[in-house]
Amino acid sequence: MKYFKYSAGPLISIILSLIIGAIFIILIGQDPAEVYVKMFTDTLGNSYGIGQVLFKATPLILTGLSVAFAFRAGLFNIGAEGQMTVGAFASAWAGFTFTSMPWIVLIPLCIISGFLAGAFWAAIAGYLKARFGSHEVINTIMLNFIAMALVSYLVNNIYLVPATIHTPEISPNAVLLRFDVITGMFKGSPFNLSFVIAAAVCIIIYYVIRKTPFGYRINTLGYNINAAEYAGMNVKRLTVYAMAIAGGLAGLAGLNFVNGYKHYFELGFSENAGYVGIAVALIARNNPFAIIIIAVFFGVLEYGGLTVNTLVPKEIVTILQGIIILLIITITKYFDKKFKLAKA
Amino acid sequence: MTNHLAVEMKGITKTFGDLRANDSVDIKITKGTIHAIIGENGAGKSTLMNILYGMYHPDSGTIYINGNEAVIHSPADAIKLGIGMVHQHFMLVNTLTVLENIILGDEVTGALNTIDKRRSRQKVKQILNNFDINIGLEEITGTLSIGTQQKIEIIKLLYRNAEILILDEPTAVLTPQETDELFKTLKVLKAEGKTILLITHKLNEVLGISEFITVLRNGKVTGNTETKDTDKDQLAGMILGGSFESIKRKQNSPAEEFILEIIGVSVRSDKGLPAVKDLSFEVHRGEIIGIAGVEGNGQHELIEAICGLRDYSGSFILNGKPADKDLPVAHIPANRHKHGIVMEYNLAENVLLGREGEAEFSTGVSIKEKALRAYTERLIKKYDIRPAEADLLIGGLSGGNQQKVVAAREMSKHTDLIVVSHPTRGLDIKAADFVHSVLLEESAKGKGIILVSSDLGELLKLSDRIAVMFNGKINAMLDSATTNEREIGSYMLGLSGSGGDKG
Ligand SMILES: Nc1ncnc2c1ncn2[C@@H]1O[C@H](COP(=O)(O)OP(=O)(O)OP(=O)(O)O)[C@@H](O)[C@H]1O
Ligand SMILES: [Mg+2]
Fold first, then answer.
1. Domain of A161?
2. B84 sits in which H/E element
3. Are B31 and B19 within 8 A, CB to CB?
4. Cβ separation of A232 and B345 shorter than 8 Å?
5. Do A280 and A137 belong to one domain?
6. Ligand showing the shortest atom-to-Cα distance for residue B37
7. From first to last of its 344 residues, what are the pLDDT tens digits of chain A?
8. How far is CA B132 from each of CA A271, B152, B186, rounded to the nearest angstrom?
9. Which positions in chain B touch A213 (Cβ < 8 Å)?
């Protein structure tokens, strides 16, 4: 019953949005059944499609986790996009700079670089909030703009490989292997070890939030900042830490593209994963495991949109995706009220 | 026959899970009277009133308003029937003016649906005149005292034409002076024909102002009486279901050595004005220092400075060592809801608050959940917290039981110094007495205790010395064995002593 209460909203909204989608598809003169069947079989019906879906889901898990972690502390992190961008660039930079290192050193170095770059970026927003009280929503949005411009400058003016639009390639020792190389499954899809990292990070964050004194402080800060202060917690420092960790998580989201897929950094790689992460966290109610499921669902939407390109124009797919997200958020809220669910 | 009844509730039953918060409650409230509803913490008083106000739906039972059966599904329905309620925790918007708060949600609108402030103001002024209430309508609500905020809540009800007013523990947060003023207002309201339902734990107040009394116990009505036919002891017996002996005053005397020396401490208020001015005193091992004073004479700021919540100049010396900002101190804050508990946490998680770093509850990496649970269960038993379930969300506890959780947590901390503000607010007589006994116990163990209270009886009973604050200074340091309420009172008002400014 409990699980029903928590999943009723998302489930009903998905069904409803499929119906609305069908109307749209009919309006543009196509057969909804054909589109849906194709979408379904091409995404989840074969191992290549599943690989594509999981590949798309990987960065969303991390950006969703980033938003969710900040939200636990009562902070709205709109900056996952920028944090992810600086993180991805840092991972790439480590990968193409320390080319002589063995993989056992270089891969952790890329991971840590990505985490720290994202953490530093978000910590700025956290510090401004703690020190001057400026709102983190504004701070993180502004830092998104700065991150884009800064990284764009670095790529275009310093690290550009002539006649391309990307940085040098990372050392082969920095590559996170694709599953089709390791297992032979998911043939041809770029699904890679970053997914394992993302899943592991989910477990760690779950543990931190639920079991550790630090996580307890973070939760307290989010629920009742006054009580946190009266209990002797250093509210300002906690705010900076919470943002830094959130930023670090978003910073890891670049690994999937840089170390797992293209092996270089290129602008525009993110496909808005930082912003979609907000929706992922919201629908998953900030629960780390639910985030994996919701991220996979968004992976289906994204890759599914591509598979029906020939039948339905790309814009229509985007419109549908937007409607689905809006529906899920509204209907979930409705059910929360109906069942009087606490915001978990 | 029934039309002289403003309210009649028949066979009201309300369960939360297995718990019967109200169990076939029958109650009749005569029009134009003040009717007190009393009972232990968790007896079901708030639940019953929330049902009348449409916040909760009873499992069974009927409600009659002015003799007619009424269906009350929501507070909006209740308001239409002329019922208004002031909750234990105010629901005002701090940043709005008094007038805006009063008319919020029920504005007089003019052209294009804009708020007609002039006509709204007239309507409010009319009410203030009728009921002889004094209040500045343009002031910012958050800056006003608790007593004034409560008046705003009451005016809000009158503005919505409430005929039946429910007040849930209105005096718990008031000073004795503010209580007197509130009661004056209530008497005027009664004279104008309003019906008032009043919840309180203070029997003196019940006997002083009400005409009828209903006693609840474990969700059932255990007594119904006219006030003139009863007395304090009888009421206590009905509330507790037995007799009850309250503790004696403090026995042990303090040691020579100091726990805390406060030297030349000055603190500013939220508005940046000097609130505590170059103040010094010492707390001995095993001593309880009471702090008396009219609200707003620096007590609050002093306490916050001691607890590391506010900047100060001067110094604190703890156990002979100069202390930096983080004094290890247990603190029962005056506003428990805002500062003492987290509504989204269960009892155990609330017990952990501020103690998550202690080796008793943490390995450094993870929280020792079993130890925390066992500890919480011990506190639940010792303090008789009900329902006795460590993993219940604290929001499911009655107001008084929530307070017990805070008191239990803070008083069991391993600190040499305990700072308590109004520790027995909202507690029933037995629970209040128990908290008193624990304070005495802790002081007998050699702890130093600073006790802020507006209840002079409480101060006299528990303290060794009473520091009377006036205008940011200690106007007098009195020996509680030889002083009395009248003497304390005159120092509080600055009629005796240095008057604060000169010294
Ligand atoms: N929302 C709720 N969920 C679960 N249990 C509740 C809820 N509200 C009240 N209760 C339970 O119902 C019982 C009666 O609570 P109520 O708040 O009516 O007590 P009360 O008489 O007002 O006590 P107090 O003097 O402490 O305010 C208590 O045992 C309480 O734990
Ligand atoms: Mg109550």
1. 46-311
2. strand B83-86
3. no
4. no
5. yes
6. 1
7. 566 777 777 778 778 888 888 898 899 888 999 988 998 899 999 999 999 999 999 999 999 999 999 999 999 999 999 999 999 999 999 999 999 999 999 999 999 999 999 999 999 999 999 999 999 999 999 999 999 999 999 999 999 999 899 999 999 999 999 999 998 889 899 999 999 999 999 999 999 999 999 999 999 999 999 999 999 999 999 999 999 999 999 999 999 999 999 999 999 999 899 999 998 998 888 999 999 999 999 999 889 888 988 888 878 778 877 887 788 778 877 777 776 554 43
8. 66, 13, 11
9. 356-357, 361-362, 364, 366-367
* pTM (predicted TM-score): 0.89
Residue A35 lies in a domain: no
Interface residues of chain A, partner chain B, Cβ below 8 Å = 207, 211-213, 216-217, 220, 223-224, 226-227, 229-233, 342
CA gap A11, B449 in Å, rounded: 56
Statement to judge: residues A283 and A334 lie in one domain: no
Token couple for A70: 């900040």
Domain spans, chain B: 5-240, 258-329+415-492
What is the H or E stretch that residue B368 is in?
Answer: none
Which ligand minimizes its atom distance to the CA of B402? 1
Residue to substitute from B56, B74, B309, B367, interface A, most A β-carbons within 10 A: B367
Q: Say how far apart CA B337 and CA B426 lie, in whole Å.
A: 12
The CATH classification number of B258-329+415-492 equals 3.40.50.300
Matching fold, domains B5-240 and B258-329+415-492: yes
- Rounded to two decimals, the ipTM of the complex is 0.88
Contact (CB, 8 A) for B45 and B216: yes
Question: What's the total number of domains in chain A?
Answer: 2
Contacts of A212 in chain B (CB under 8 A): 365-367
Does domain B5-240 fall under CATH 3.40.720.10? My reply is no
